[in-house]
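Whiteboard transcription, Tuesday session. T.W. wrote the structure tokens on the left side:
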């Protein structure tokens, strides 16, 4: 039997029974189930880096607001699809105070998690203009967005940002938009999986070309203001969260409560449509909807069909958290800085043991410490590395499922790794490096 920190024969048996054909294409949930099974079979605790879920306690402000909503009997009442008035007011205040943009409350819409917002957006925007039925991904990106396109049967194109930072982004992006088939662009910043943060120059390029080709930019702000190299999060004061909305009115923002508020389990997020986008009119929409205006199509067409509204109690929770943050009495970004602290320690443990960071730079600056980082080991593909790490009690996902062109890389999430696991991570990485030199 091979000497590894986790019993080699048991891990091999569980992997064979998992029906995972390839580690490089295994989804996040497939890897999660595999690690769950190995932990049960061996009794060993893994360093779990595959799931991008919060590792901190949820906001007590949200919890108390939900309790009060239940006491008021709101569970018996259907919520309005467009959102309760209090939510819409605070969402509009939030984007003014923390992004410095003006959006009518009408365009601020609650969704059942940010991923519901992206699903609705892809479905609706790709019905907006005849002949423009394709989404452009600036990758690597959130794997579920790709899965949504598969489920919906929507076309997509993509390119990896690694070689096209800064000024190089302009010509690369224009090479896709100039073909005339792109309806929208999707990216996240800070980025899942690479923790890339687009610069002001890059955002201005995206905004300029979105205006030139009349393309909607879908900006996924799941990790809102979590680039801790700058002090974001003081209401009404710069610096503000960098955003394409500072350079173009052709945007839809997707803002999650899962990470910054540690409120993932209640599935509550918000879609923010610019006034311009909300009011876009197109006769092509009438082929599928009863409106020719994008905002009502999104709200009373797509979102109504998906869930008939977002539940009252999570709406009340997010409203309360937004209000407290808007008022300056709640500072969740101070709490989630813990992720950056963990990342700094973990990245050093990996690099001290022969690993390297794959996406390592933001133009001329080292990548920030945050919720994710990417790693590789010399001479190993992502398939080989992910498989081998299973025997050392370490889990992650392949960058391949994020449409990265860095075939050797893995995505590591820091959120579920507790500080008391750092000694185990250190010893397992030392054993791995010793066995693979």
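and on the right, the sequence the group agreed on:
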């Amino acid at each position: 039997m091979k000497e590894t920190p986790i019993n080699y024969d048991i891990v091999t048996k569980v992997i064979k029974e998992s029906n995972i054909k390839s580690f490089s294409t295994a989804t996040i949930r497939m890897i999660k189930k595999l690690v769950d099974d190995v932990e049960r079979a061996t009794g060993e605790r893994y360093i779990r880096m595959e799931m991008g879920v919060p590792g901190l306690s949820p906001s007590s402000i949200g919890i108390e607001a939900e309790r009060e909503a239940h006491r008021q009997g709101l569970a018996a009442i259907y919520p309005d699809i467009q959102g309760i008035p209090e939510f819409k007011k605070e969402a509009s205040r939030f984007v003014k105070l923390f992004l410095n943009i003006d959006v009518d409350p009408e365009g601020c819409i609650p969704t059942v998690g940010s991923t519901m917002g992206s699903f609705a957006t892809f479905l609706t925007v790709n019905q907006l203009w005849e002949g423009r039925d394709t989404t452009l991904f600036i990758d690597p990106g959130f794997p579920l967005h790709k899965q949504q396109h598969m489920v919906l049967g929507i076309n997509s194109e993509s390119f990896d940002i690694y070689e096209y930072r800064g000024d190089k982004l302009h010509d690369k992006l224009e090479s896709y938009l100039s073909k005339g088939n792109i309806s929208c662009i999707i990216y996240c910043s800070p980025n899942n999986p690479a923790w890339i943060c687009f610069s002001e120059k890059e955002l201005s390029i995206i905004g300029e070309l979105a205006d030139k080709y009349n393309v909607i930019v879908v900006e996924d702000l799941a990790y809102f203001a979590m680039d801790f190299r700058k002090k974001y999060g003081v209401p009404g004061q710069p610096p503000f969260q960098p955003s394409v909305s500072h350079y173009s009115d052709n945007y839809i923002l997707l803002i999650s409560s899962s990470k910054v508020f540690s409120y993932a389990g209640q599935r509550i997020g918000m879609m923010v449509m610019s006034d311009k986008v909300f009011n876009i009119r197109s006769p092509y929409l009438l082929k599928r909807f009863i409106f020719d205006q994008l905002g009502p199509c999104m709200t009373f067409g797509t979102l109504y069909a998906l869930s008939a509204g977002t539940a009252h109690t999570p709406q009340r929770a997010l409203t309360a958290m937004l209000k407290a943050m808007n008022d300056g009495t709640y500072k969740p970004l101070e709490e989630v800085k813990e992720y950056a602290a963990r990342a700094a320690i973990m990245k050093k443990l990996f690099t001290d043991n022969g690993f390297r960071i794959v996406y390592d730079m933001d133009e001329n600056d080292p990548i920030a410490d945050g919720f994710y980082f990417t790693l590789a080991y010399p001479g190993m593909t992502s398939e080989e590395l992910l498989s081998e790490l299973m025997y050392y009690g370490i889990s992650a996902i392949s960058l391949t499922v994020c449409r990265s062109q860095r075939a050797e890389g893995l995505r590591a999430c820091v959120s579920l790794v507790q500080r008391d696991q750092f000694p185990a991570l250190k010893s397992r990485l030392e054993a791995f490096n010793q066995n693979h030199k």
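Someone added at the bottom: The chain has two domains: 8-56+332-436, 60-327.
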